[in-house]
Amino acid sequence: MATPFHLIWFSTYAARNWDLPDNQNYHWRDPHVYHDMAHVLETRGKFDAIVFADSDGIPTTYAGKNDYYVKYGLENVGKGDPLPIFAALAASTKHLGLVPTLSTTFFTPQLLAQTVGTLDHLSAGRSGWNIVTSLSSHNAQNYGLDDLPSGNQRYDQADEFMETVETLWSEATVDSDSNNSGRLRMPALPQGKPVYMQAGGSERGRTFAARHAELVIAHINTPKAMKEFRDDMRRRIAAIGRDPDSCKFFFTVKPLIAETTKEARAQYAKQKSRPALNVESGLVNYASRIGYDVSKLPLDEPLPLDLPIVGSTGIFRQHMENGRAPTLREIGQMEAVKESYLALGTAEEVANQLATDMDYIGGDGFAIRETMHPSNVIPVVERLVPALQARGLTRSEYRYPTFRENLLDPEFNQPARLADMPRAASR
Amino acid sequence: MAKQPIHVGWAARVGAGAGSETQPWLRPDLYGELIGMIERAGVDFILVSEAQRPTLSPVILAGAWSAKTRTIGIVPEMLTTDYPPFKLARLIGTLNHVTEGRIGWAMDTSLTQSGAHNYGFEGPPPAELRHVIAAEYVEVCNKLFDSWAPDALVESPEAGIFADPPKVRPIHHAGKYFKVRGPLNIMTAPHGTPLLVQTVRTDEEIRFAGQYADLAIVAGRTVDDVSRARKQLEAAATAAGRTADAVKVYFTVSIRAGETPEAIAAWQRPSGGGIDLSGSVEAVASQLEDTFDAAQCDGVVVQGSWVATEINVICNNVLATLRRRGRIALPNPALSLRRRLLGANLAQIESAAPQRQGSLRA
User: Fold this and answer.
1) Residue B239 half-sphere exposure, CB side, CA atoms within 13 Å?
2) What ipTM was predicted for this assembly?
3) CATH class belonging to A6-261+340-425
4) From the list B68, B95, B185, which residue is nearest A56 (CB)?
5) Residue A425's pLDDT band (boundaries 50, 70, 90)?
6) What fold is seen in the domain B7-146+177-350?
7) Distance between CA B274 and CA B295 in Å, rounded?
């Protein structure tokens, strides 16, 4: 029997895809776009949640300045803080989980507990929190630090941070007794605490996720590696005495749906031929991700294997995997058009691919990684989701009022239970 | 001579201690209606603050309220000691996009015990440093708000260029209390920078507002108190090298209106002080007009409660009466909050054009 799965939308409040060919009448900053698209993701797509990635410094990795990132709108350029837009969506939606990304390095536990606690209240129990420890020095330099503590140190701090925020949430009270100073003065959160999300892939990141996460998003390019990742994480979770089913794994995918396969390919080719996707922009992006200024290296020579990189070793190694070190120019070309795991074709073809992949992986969902541009959202909710629902693979109705209940519900793809109907309807 | 229009702000306190058992601020269905009523009455902005800290986050409330409204300005009160300046500037900068130009920041410079700890002070914070730290903080925020030139965005798909690099500059701030590289990663909203608001009680706060605020709120008990504060603010603005009317001055009013003494006595006393106005609806409207004209300020801030019947009387009776009398105009939704409230002053700030002072007040 086919494995049913969850859907979430993974995006940012940012200028990504500002240069899409059909951008008339659309601007990524326009809040109405997010309200409208969240509305259809909820009413028609029956998505579990929207997650917004976030990070807030503009890199200087490439050529030692911000300029190239600004020129192409890359990395964190033109990116709004996810909290205000999620606060607005809390008021305009009823069922979607809302997952902002917030750093344990740049927030105090008090401020984070207050902020996310408020979001959980205003959404009546639909807040999540994508926990990040902040990756790079260009973030640190906006917060009075010259550089960040090491990755392991940051995760140790994050463990401590988690303890403090959990205490703050568990002790939240509206009793204004003076003995309560330092406690959050609000009722207990509707969900007790937000749904914890994590996306770190490093060894220490996996240990952290196994301990805390209820939702994990992984950016992996093959179903085989997706399955390996999920199996590994579930083993780690079981090893510390947690129920592996208490954490759901989502794999990023970029669907491109059209009336015919040929048309989908043509649309894809058109997207990839945008002038902003060139060797330079590819290398600018690559430089900040591996944390090394490649602007000084010769374009047409193979990339040295012993570069002292400080960023993602995974991304650095990806290009070396074919046994031959590609030239910088080749890397730039590949990086410029790099995508998440692609699912391209007619709605039926994409539904087939996702169903087959999920059967093989074993669970638990796909995270559609795209901007909330209508040209991305509408084909998914109008064509793909009905095809998945018809096979009983994805949710047709929300069965519970809160994000966590819907996410962890083992029967999430079944019709709503009658007993829950009046409760849902009264909200 | 036509009388000056009365601008109206609304102070909303939320959380435990805000005097409401039903906690309507937690429920979109309830607050949506109440704030809708306030918006339709022609109120220019609603100031969101925590009744007892730390309660619900004014930033999150501001985002949520923006989804339920179209024209009203939203001004969350945020403590400079709670947020690193980059975080605050980015949150407010983002809110300006999300609210389509309706955002302000109520600057609270209180140096709390926990806030002092964030700056490395042991024990009670040194009071004299409070405004020194806050001044540097606001300067960092202003530099960040200005780190994108208004015309920095290119967004040309054909040229493959998103923004013009020379127009997006790091601020490289390295002061006594803050070190911030910048630039902000969110560009200035098409509607300009946010409105900076400060509630003033002390001489220090007046000096601070004179230097940094667009709009100051004074909480005098009498017209004389308010007029004195207004003059002090004018002097403070001048001393800071700004024009005397660079800071718009609003004063708080506490309204209790009803047609019988019993109806008036039944009002909850709104906390926060200000000038008391009570009596019949017509009488309160007249008191408000007279007080406003005598104080020669730019607007009033109503001390709001969360009692639906009280909000109804203030909005649909008192403010409606003033609208009928031509003293309150519905806000022009085409203008950003800052542009709407600063009017001629903003034109003066933004261009070197000759003064057209007062032209919008006629």
Assistant:
1) 12
2) 0.94
3) alpha beta
4) B185
5) very low
6) TIM Barrel (3.20.20)
7) 13
